[in-house]
């Protein structure tokens, strides 16, 4: 089975994530797309994040009706911050017959050389890259393991959603209804 891995904080998961994941699952050679909920991204301050279990629960609420999408807490029991290469090694131990592919935005490609063991990562794994506007050119786009995928790009961020909630405005249609209900029930960011 070929599985695409979409890493993120998902603080919260939103329709942009879902459109991208579903597009990758339906329009590439991937059997499934897994949302890898990262408890702590090494490039982001952790104090801004909801508890990892809440973020995982919202992803599961969002994808509950789609058998091609899955959520994993694989990084919850790993050292923090989480490094993609370590997660991939752990996934290979757990699922030796699976082939894993990274899914990332084009805007992450220029900073890939800053990632832990990035040469090993790009040398051993395919990376499916979706377009992002205003991304500086990088030679990595030409790498044999980088595949540009013309997925739709919705300019929506979790930051925007959190700010909208803080302002007391509606997030209807920005997140799936069960996620919106969960955010309201838990009074996140209000």
UniProtKB/TrEMBL annotation:
Give the record's keywords alphabetically: ATP-binding, NAD, Nucleotide-binding, Nucleotidyltransferase, Pyridine nucleotide biosynthesis, Transferase
Functional pathway: Cofactor biosynthesis; NAD(+) biosynthesis; deamido-NAD(+) from nicotinate D-ribonucleotide: step 1/1
Q: From the record, what ranges are coiled-coil?
A: none
Which GO MF term does the entry hold, naming one?
Answer: nicotinate-nucleotide adenylyltransferase activity
Catalysed conversion reaction = nicotinate beta-D-ribonucleotide + ATP + H(+) = deamido-NAD(+) + diphosphate
E.C. number(s) listed in UniProt: 2.7.7.18
List residues of the Cytidyltransferase-like domain.
6-163
Q: What does this protein do?
A: Catalyzes the reversible adenylation of nicotinate mononucleotide (NaMN) to nicotinic acid adenine dinucleotide (NaAD).
User: Hey, which family's this protein in?
Assistant: Belongs to the NadD family.
Q: What is this protein called?
A: Probable nicotinate-nucleotide adenylyltransferase
Organism, scientific name = Adhaeribacter terreus
Q: Which gene encodes it?
A: nadD
């Amino acid at each position: 089975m070929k599985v695409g891995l979409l890493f993120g904080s998902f603080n919260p998961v939103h329709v942009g994530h879902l459109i991208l994941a579903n597009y990758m699952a339906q329009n590439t050679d991937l059997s499934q797309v897994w949302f890898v909920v990262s408890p702590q991204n090494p490039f982001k301050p952790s104090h801004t994040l909801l508890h990892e279990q809440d973020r995982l629960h919202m992803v599961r609420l969002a994808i509950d009706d789609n058998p091609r999408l899955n959520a994993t807490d694989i990084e919850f029991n790993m050292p923090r911050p989480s490094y993609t290469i370590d997660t991939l090694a752990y996934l290979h131990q757990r699922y030796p017959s699976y082939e894993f592919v990274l899914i990332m935005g084009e805007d992450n490609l220029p900073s890939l050389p800053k990632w832990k063991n990035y040469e090993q990562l790009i040398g051993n794994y395919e990376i499916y890259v979706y377009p992002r506007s205003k991304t500086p050119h990088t030679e990595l786009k030409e790498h044999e393991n980088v595949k540009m995928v013309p997925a739709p790009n919705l300019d929506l961020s979790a930051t925007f959603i959190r700010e909208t909630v803080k302002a007391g405005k509606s997030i209807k249609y920005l997140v799936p209804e069960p996620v919106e209900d969960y955010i309201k029930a838990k009074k996140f960011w209000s």
